[in-house]
Amino acid sequence: MTEPGRGRLAETVVVVVVVAFVLAFALFWIYVLFIAPSARQDRLQDAAFARAAQPVCTKAIADLQASNVVNQTAASPPERADLVERSDARLTIMVGDLRALTPTTGDDRAAVTAWLDDWDQWLRDRVTWVGKLRAGQDAPFDEKARDNGEPYSKALNAFAITNEMPACATPFGV
To answer: Residue 37: what are its φ and ψ, rounded to 5°?
Structure first.
C-alpha cells in the first residue's frame, strides 16, 4: 500500500516536469523567432553571378581611384558635390553592368534584382545629398533605411560579402 503523501508528491513532480517542458519549448521558439540572428537568405545558389560581378566591381573601384575621387578632401560642400557626382556616375554604370549579368530565373534572379534595386536606392539617396551640398549645406550623407531599419548600405555590403564579391560592397571614401 502506498502512502497518501507519496501519491501527491508524484503528481506534483509530473505537473512541474510538464510545466517546465512547456516553458522550455515556448522559450526555445521565442528565441528562434525573435532573438536568434536570422540565417543568411541572400546566399546565391549559383556562384556564376558573383564570379562575373567581382571583376566588374573591381574595375569600377579602380576607375574611381584613377579618376581621383576616392578619399579626397573638398574645401566646400559644392566641391564635395562634384566629387560625389563623379563617383556616382561611375557607380551607376557599374550597377547597369551588373544588371546585364543578372541570372534569368529562380531565387538567384530575385536576390540579385533586389540587391541591385537597393543599389539604385542608395544612389538616389546620394543624389538627394548632392542637392543639399549644392545648396551649401555641409550635410552628412543620410541614407534611407530599409523596412527592417537598417541602412541600405548594410544590406548591400552583407550581400556582397556573403556572396564573396567584396569589391561590390559600397566603396569607402567616395
So the answer is: -60, 140
Is there a contact between 145 and 151 (Cβ–Cβ < 8 Å)? Answer: yes
pLDDT in tens, 139-171: 999 999 988 889 999 999 999 999 999 999 999
- Grouping H, G, I as helix, E, B as strand and the rest as coil, residue 151 is strand
Is residue 142 within 8 A of residue 129, CB to CB? The reply is yes
What are the residues facing 145 on neighbouring strands? 151
pLDDT in tens, 5-53: 677 887 887 777 767 666 765 565 665 556 655 444 689 999 999 999 9
CA-based diameter of the chain, in Å? Answer: 95
Amino acid symbol at 129: W
DSSP class of residue 84?
Answer: H
Residue-level pLDDT at 151: 93
Q: What is the C-alpha separation between 133 and 146, in angstroms, rounded?
A: 24
Separation of alpha carbons 85 and 80, rounded Å? 9
Query: Residue 151: what are its φ and ψ, rounded to 5°?
Result: -65, 155
C-alpha–C-alpha distance, residues 35 and 163, integer Å? 25
